[in-house]
Design a protein that fits this description.
Strand order of the largest sheet: 1-5-6-7-2-3-4
Largest sheet: 7 strands, antiparallel
Shape: elongated
Distance between the termini: 71 Å
Radius of gyration: 19 Å
Helix content: 25-40%
Number of strands: 7
Strand content: 25-35%
Number of helices: 3
Length: about 160
């Protein structure tokens, strides 16, 4: 016979409350599954917007990124206030983020790739409805350590309205 102690009941209530809070946050988040079609549509909206110069700030992998682009060329990047050592700054701009999401889709589809291991990988995204740039991205893997997120902090167009 199993004895239910007060401590066990408190642990069960706490676990339930944490699971409920996580589910509420997950469900209230206005993100949709990342698909190749959705990504292609976002890229198209971005191209059609004609934005060539912008400032962009976002958080990803625990770091804050600040990007300045002029005439579609990334001119300035800071990661946590420091200039990155990567020589290819284009990966930090809007087009680079689209490429990152395409790579995430490729990785999720590859059974021998970096997300291999039998756990389901969920990729969810929110693109700006008119301009197409990434506003939010979430990757989760059924409790594994392969989660990631991108949160848009600020986007400012420099070449128009």
């Amino acid at each position: 016979m199993r004895i239910v102690t007060r401590a066990n009941v408190l642990l069960m209530v706490a676990a339930f409350a944490m699971a409920a809070a996580g589910a509420i946050l997950w469900l209230r988040e206005p993100v949709t599954p990342l698909t190749r079609e959705g990504l292609a549509g976002a890229r198209q909206r971005w191209r059609e917007s004609g934005i060539a110069s912008y400032e962009l700030r976002y958080r990803m992998h625990g770091s804050e990124y600040a990007v300045r682009t002029k005439s579609r060329i990334v001119e300035d990047v800071a990661v946590n206030g420091q200039v990155p050592t990567s020589g290819n700054w284009s990966v930090y701009g809007v087009e680079g983020l689209f490429d990152t999401l395409a790579q995430e889709l490729d990785n999720a589809a590859d059974p021998a790739g970096p997300f291999a291991g039998g756990k389901a990988i969920l990729l969810r995204v929110r693109f700006h409805p008119e301009l197409g740039y990434v506003e939010r991205y979430l990757r989760s893997s059924g409790g594994g350590a392969r989660g990631a997120s991108l949160d848009q902090v600020n986007f400012r167009r420099l070449d128009g309205p």
